[in-house]
Amino acid sequence: MPCKLVNAEIVENLLTMKDAVAACEEAFRDWGNGEVVCPTKITLELGEDAEWPPYKNGLNAMPAYIHSKKSAGIKCVGGSLNNPQWGLPYIIALILLFDPATGIFRCVMDGAQITNYRTGAQAAVAAKYIEDKKKIKFGLFGAGVQGRTQLMAFNEVFDIEEVHLYDINPQAAKAFVEEMSKVVCTKFIIKEDPKDVMEVTDIVVSVTHGKNKFIKNEWFKKGQIIFPMGSFTECEDELLLGADHVIVDSVGQTMHRGALKSVVDAGKFKEENISATIGELVCGKKEYRISPDEKIVCIPIGTGAMDIAVATMIYEKVKEQNLGESFVFNNAVEI
């Protein structure tokens, strides 16, 4: 059976943030109902957090199966700190989709745009089930690609009254506002101190490469939700331990990397301290709506389930529109 080869241009033309949010919401609902298989990601250390190998890189393998779509796949993704100096994007990714019954490859697809969009979408979906307000003041740490897709995704779910932005690079913040003010119609305010972002916002998303725990517990106010994204350590331990609820996408994954790793390693945070998964919220098994007296931390660290959900949606469009190239790896026939 021919395998579809889908390049970045096709993905970018087919993928909208609205569709990414819908695909992630459906995948979280399926996951909460026990209809998704999503092992924790496997990391190949290539110098991102070690002196050797000397590449300042890391590669993740992220598999998943989504029963409602009868789709299985794996994303291979790397994030190299060297790439910007070579004119390359930080994230480079490839997604493989295959028939779960036979293992026959259905599609090989560029995964960079999918990674960026689903990372924004997964946080926005989670916020939809935690935040009661429809109109919010949105805080953002990080003015890179992920900052852009976070804002795009939250704009699909909420009426954003103001965006309060902080980046260690003032020029990056200015470029962000210049670009995104044409995409999202709202008021943008650049802050010189991250504390100022926390003081005035309902929801704060942090998408930096910070490993210095720069978000202080004393800044975290009642009635606020914070999303420390990805595998970095941006929040003080006391902030995490002082939250009324901690909500995650994948229990196994968040216990061993990213925001919670240091408090888990210190024996201060255990699995039973997690209030819910995003899947449990979306499918209705649990409910944790923010109240004026509570502080909530939500950690969508990123899973293969969201990648495969969005990639499968793109693959269906590719078939409908007869896009991409076909390549025969072997003569096997899908059952």
UniProtKB/TrEMBL annotation:
<dbReference type="GO" id="GO:0005737">
    <property type="term" value="C:cytoplasm"/>
</dbReference>
<dbReference type="InterPro" id="IPR023401">
    <property type="entry name" value="ODC_N"/>
</dbReference>
<protein>
    <submittedName>
        <fullName>Alanine dehydrogenase</fullName>
    </submittedName>
</protein>
<dbReference type="InterPro" id="IPR003462">
    <property type="entry name" value="ODC_Mu_crystall"/>
</dbReference>
<dbReference type="Pfam" id="PF02423">
    <property type="entry name" value="OCD_Mu_crystall"/>
</dbReference>
<dbReference type="InterPro" id="IPR036291">
    <property type="entry name" value="NAD(P)-bd_dom_sf"/>
</dbReference>
